[in-house]
Amino acid sequence: MTSDVFGLTSANRRMIADFLETLDDDQWAAPTLCEGWTVHHLAAHLVQPMLVGFGRFFLTALRYRGDTARTVDHFTRRLAARPRAELIALLREHAADRVDPPRVGPFGPFAETCIHLRDIARPLGLAADVPAEHWRLLLDHLTSPGVAPALVPPGRLDGLRLEATAFLTDSGPNTGSGPNTNSDHNTSPGHGTGWGPGAGALISGPLEALGLAVTGRRAALADLHGPGLATLQARL
Fold first, then answer.
1. Which of the residues in the chain have pLDDT under 70?
2. How far apart, in whole angstroms, are the C-alpha atoms of residue 145 and residue 80?
3. pTM for the complete prediction?
4. Number of helices followed by number of strands (H, E) in the chain
5. Which run of H or of E encompasses 210?
6. Residue spans with biased composition (Polar residues) (predicted)?
7. What is the CATH number of domain 2-124?
């Protein structure tokens, strides 16, 4: 399974590099779903795990009194000083790097490729996305007991049940520039997959929206529905 995750992460990095190459100056300067970060910042962040080793990260974190978020922001902004062509080249060059960070493991970088692509594409109204199978695999992990708190804080999904009501019609990534295709009218219903206790309050919607909401993206809540939605919204 671990080798499969590494392979999927590598494929996603290459796909994201191709997608970033299609964006113009205004799009690179546009805000993302990550507060305070532009597309350029997120492109830099995506190469950070391959360029910044754990030892260097740990020593820098000491300067920020162990604040991981501030440490990540520090390295992201430093790397974002590089031109976009260089960041794209670095993402391709290091696409096959096997990064296994402490605490989050290989699912951390895999999750970032799935989620950050949509952090970029959603605000731009673009359809670029990873294959539906990647979201299924990621949601299996995000709802598991061993998920790292950095991905899903403890208690966020307590008493909630997730159900994917629609999957992407295209089994491969879509890097087109049309409207977001992750809404119900662009997917094939009837193949629901569920996560969580059977008696939990239901939240249903497209795979992509479930994955984004579970990891704290409030922008995805509008694409979800069900009696558990208000509870999740209050926890984000």
1. 1, 3, 166-192
2. 35
3. 0.87
4. 10, 3
5. helix 207-214
6. 171-188
7. 1.20.120.450
